Amino acid sequence: MARRSSLSIRVVEGRNLPAKDITGSSDPYCIVKIDNEAIVRTATVWKTLSPFWGEEYEVHLQPSFHSVSFYVMDEDALSRDDVIGKVCLTRDMLAEHPKGFSGWLSLSEVDPDEEVQGEIHLRLEVLQSEAGRRLCCTVLEARDLARKDRNGASDPFVRVRYNGKTQESAVVKKSCYPRWNETFEFEVPEAAGEQLCVEVWDWDLVSRNDFLGKVVFNVPGLQAVWQEEGWFRLWPDKSKPREAEGNLGSLQLQVRLRDETVLPSSCYQPLVQLLCQEVKSGPQDGKVHLITLLDETTTAECRQEVAVNLVKLFLGQGLVKEFLDLLFKLELAKPCEPNTLFRSNSLASKSMESFLKVAGMQYLHAVLGPTINRLFEEKKYVELDPSKVEIKDVGCSGLHRVQTESEVIEQSRQHLQSYLGELLAAIAKSAPACPAVVRATFRQLFRRVGERFPEQQHQNVKFIAVTSFLCLRFFSPAIMTPKLFHLREKHADSRTSRTLLLLAKAVQIVGNMEAAVGRAKEAWLAPLQPVLQRGIAQMKDFIAELVGIEEKEELDLQNALTLQTLVVKEGPLFIHKTRGKGPLLSSSSKKLHFSLTSEALSFAKTPSSKKGGFIALSNIRAAEKVEEKSFGSSHVMQIIYVDEAGQWETAYLQCKCVNELNQWLSALRKACANNPEMLCSYHPGVFRGDKWSCCHQKDKTGLGCDATRHGVTLQEWSDPLDPDMEAQLIFRHLCGLREPMRDKYRELVETEDPPNGPLSPPEEAPLPEGLGRLLAVLRDLEDCHRRARPGPPTAPRPLLELQT
User: What is the pTM of this model?
Assistant: First the structure.
């Protein structure tokens, strides 16, 4: 049994942001921090005070996290980026919204006294002697303190206050992981009603000291237990009153916290087996299928999530093709028109859309990537709508002239035709590269639609059924927003966005297989008529090839794919070599190409060159961040591993940005999740000279000064399947549908017209076997959760007074 927490985050947009540039605008982006640790950074939206991001992230993390913060920044090319404001959501606030928080929040000013982080290790004792009672506070160490100095560290010291008296510790220079091991004693009066306050400060020589956080203790509560020792989270000082709340603009967010208790696999087997049996049995005449009830009772707002969970579950069971085929049959059994087939947001449509993202993203990148990259690099002006054409000067100085509208449209037609032609050619030759399971699923869809609409006038319907998913729900959205499909790292500028939109529209027209563009809403797309007609013919040939592969050849291709080693992540990284007594940044640092598979992390000079070496995943013990001051960069990670001789080694690898850093860490942590000897602590600094730069320990092999963060990962389309988690999410969803599914079944029974008349009132109609078994399985799973649930917690001792 394991408790797992995750945050679903969508940074939607901002509005009314203040201008930070002399042009009267800003270049805003967002940094998302969890407990003050940067997890993701959105793309920058240039020259706007009302940016739209629309970026989504799923973060898996430890259940003990406290808050998630959103910092809106203004990017500057020549100076440090400006902080516009922030929004902070605590864990308790998110827990009050089980279905997730969604809405606008005003940005608040970033107060340095509130930007605290980390923990402090204390031992507190009340000693009784003849002279009276004494309060002893031993300050042992601290970890992960806020970095207040330009060198990426702080110079922390501790200030202890009690009963009007103050004592201070020594200053530990250049460390966010200081060790003091100092004891402070205070006399405790008879009426001990005072609080003990332990504050951590950053010492500065020429300016005022910076506040790093505090912990406040209730001394009467401490006397009841006499001794207390542990790690305590540092809290900010009380917030200052906001005089002008809301003048920094606002941010629209969608954030959902999910806490799940995942049981052992054996507990979910009855549910998984029942769902698999329902898929294998298929639809039966005169009976209401369990999947039909699930489809009819799942609300639109959570249908996408349920579709993803089901697709991943059946992928893990090897039945995704059969599951989707069942959905096709059930959808086609309903009254439907050929021209609206699979255009709704039914479970079938959402499941197929999710399946393509899970199984076909690598294929999408291979097909669209070259054209999208070319379009971003060329930044051509493309506009076919006469009402939006911008007339501009052309030609060299002294000989320039104004282009006419027709010239701009003709030039735009040529550019767009070139992009579209290149893209359609890439699609046309991509059938062999399409994943075998995707081809097999499209072949089933093609066949089912052909059987449902066999008439001659509907011969195009089976082709359109395929393109309704491949073009309209997969290719076109990725073309319009390549950042959201990981095709590009940044959002497109306004000119490139317009070109992408026109290209996506053209692909939609080809996918719709419209005979004439003139019938389209945008009649001004008519200049593309010839290339679109050729594209429709190309698309039909491509689909015929895609679905025409024989079953035996499909099986051979599938077997060949399973023998290949899947690349989880790859890309260039800078490697910092070990030199002298420690890993120092030097001019000999190299940029190498790294590749992470399910077996090893390997590296080479270039993607195509011979591998220069590798680290077996089974030998990795930790993958963590490195302090900024260690190499002068905040984007360095360390991989701690054991070499073939059994010696401990550390590789220091530098990424180009915070997103790439966390993506690599996430991929490595997931790949090593089952390693039995993962470390619980590590050193976030480097061993330089004769000591660690983080905590100043002189024992190179000593215990690490910070806790590892194996549980913090980002959800990616290439994640390994987690069948227990998917089963748990489906179970939780089904628990809320028990009564709606009963009611929907009775409603469907009531509307049917059995040949011998109704045998009993709908309320008394016996439940179908599948639904009855499902309800029993859900009850058993609920019992398993109740047995696994810990007993009621004991009342906490009134030791800590948390500051808010």
Answer: 0.83
